[in-house]
Amino acid sequence: MRYLYIDTSSSYLYSAIVEDDQLLAEIQEEYGQSLSEITLPKISFLFQQAKLSPKDIDKIIVVNGPGSFTGIRIGLTIAKVYAWSLQIPITTIYSLEAMALSSDKKTIHIPLINARRGYVFAAIYDENQNVILKPRYILLQELQNYWKKYDSYEIITNDVFEGIENTTKYVPNLLKIVQHFKDKSEINPHAVNPEYLKLTEAEESKL
Question: How much is the pTM?
Answer without folding.
Answer: 0.95
